[in-house]
Design goal:
The structure is a homodimer. Helix content of chain A is about 25%, strand content about 30%. By secondary structure, chain A is of the alpha/beta class. Chains A and B meet through helix 1, helix 2 and helix 3 of A and helix 1, helix 2 and helix 3 of B.
């Protein structure tokens, strides 16, 4: 699993601060998470293949999280895309996009599916044999979801030496990987644990932006491998955080600690701060394994 | 008068090609003409003061001409703008913008006026004592207008030596500038032309994008000081120009020649061309005084 930060600032894009967008590469899926203005340029800058994006997750309808989407959808058309595109977003986004395509007489030439969200409990958005994605309901000025991306338990790893020694037929290998006991050529039942190793533990990524301090989300993100939690402000502006329903670095670290996650990434910084090191300084005493989101940074999970 | 090119490419923004946006500084007005995705970043890059923009002219509802507008409107709010903002655009844009502000619960804290256009004849959009702006109806895949920005005849210039010699009271200076004959201290009537010089001839800028070859616009832009005319394609792709209702460099030059303008700027290039010099090469045999729009270029008119 690999996370690439395309933009990590709140509010208005500037020459050196891009609004929120991330690419999550998980078990060969390329998921785009949020899509602020200019995201298509950032995708080119960081050499993400446009055609590999089939699922876009939009947290909420503030501009710094979706104003780049209609441009990306239009560019897909101009590039002759044929593959379907799925957009998971709060109710209303479909109306916004379709109105613009209609008025520009610029319908897509590929299938475009909107999965509109309005529930306030975790919802299953995507599932295949390798990955599952749920919403993480958050608390902001408008209806907002984070997203929890989880790998599924992988197949057990074949202990090829043990399998050969036990004289198990090749035809049983898939069954062994799925965890079954099998009979060998002599008709003896061999226990699965003698034939396999444990697979790598499944990993998970929780994306929480934008939100006020909201400990209600902790049970859902408990023990996750990586948590991105917004920290728009420092504690010195905690009143502003409260009134705008954002979090401070200290609050993000508290969530990470209480949820017992492995790593924390901070982001969605207000552009008022000239140095980001203060965010680390504020979070570290509470949660040690904390890093800063920065444009172009790649996190290997 | 001064024109700054913020972006001059068609279709999809890339790392080094911005979609259409221009700033026209005319008699102390700062007019923004079109507003493709990323325009607010371009405005910062070229140090245009956001608060000085009070009038935005949108030619048509294709994304490369307006996808940056909603972000700019939102940024004005975040910057605490109080001054009113006027947007002149095809019918439909108001609905697009207001829907997004509503769903984001992000109403502007400044007065926002939409002047929606749907007529197919030239329309007066703006007029004060110094400047007048009309639409230039064009021919494209969707309803499209160019814009004609004209300085009004300036006051006559005082010949201060002659005025003093004629012993005219200072109280009459404004009247002299307006072209009146006045009496001097001896009661003698002095002809205005003895007291003044001709002012600089009023200048004009015609912005024509996007459009198929459309000679019907020539009477309106006749003799203008500067013409920007789109040239999305070269003649080698003239069929593509016809089918997409765009112009070639040769067609843009023909319009400039027939309209007897002083200077021509080409722009709105398709990103398929690696060198822009071919546009000049194609246009120059028809219209000599031709230049290329390029990002960041400033044209003094």
């Amino acid at each position: 699993m690999e996370l690439t930060i395309l933009g990590c600032y709140s509010a208005t894009p500037k020459t050196n601060t891009s609004p929120t967008a991330q690419i999550l590469n998980i078990r060969n899926h390329i998921f785009l998470i949020d899509c602020g203005e200019g995201t298509q340029v950032q995708l080119r800058k960081y050499k993400v293949k446009f055609s590999r994006i089939q699922h876009i997750f939009i947290s909420h309808l503030h501009g710094d999280h979706y104003f780049g989407l209609v441009g990306l959808i239009s560019t897909f058309t101009l590039l002759g895309r044929e593959k379907e595109l799925h957009i998971y977003a709060p109710k209303g986004l479909k109306e916004i996009i379709l109105l613009q395509l209609k008025l520009g007489k610029s319908w897509t030439n590929y299938p475009l599916y909107f999965h509109e969200l309005d529930t306030k409990t975790p919802e299953l958005l995507f599932e295949d044999e390798k990955v599952v994605v749920h919403t993480i309901p958050l608390k902001h000025r408008v209806y907002t979801n984070g997203f929890l991306f989880e790998e599924k338990e992988a197949d057990r790893k074949l202990n090829i030496e043990a399998v050969k020694k036990a004289q198990v037929d090749v035809a049983y290998y898939q069954k062994i990987k799925k965890g079954f006991d099998v009979k060998n050529e002599k008709g003896e039942l061999i226990s699965n644990k003698e034939l396999t190793f444990n697979p790598a533990a499944p990993k998970s990524y929780a994306y929480c932006s934008d939100t006020a301090y909201f400990p209600e989300c902790i049970p859902q993100i408990m023990n996750c491998t990586l948590l991105y939690h917004e920290s728009t402000f420092l504690e010195e502006h905690s009143q502003l955080a409260t009134s705008t329903r954002h979090s401070t670095a200290e609050q993000a670290a508290t969530i990470a600690k209480e949820a017992n996650v492995e790593r924390l990434i901070l982001g969605h910084y207000s552009t008022r701060y000239s140095s980001l090191q203060k965010f680390i300084k504020e979070a570290k005493p509470i949660f040690k394994n904390v890093e800063l989101a920065e444009e172009g940074k790649v996190f290997n999970i």
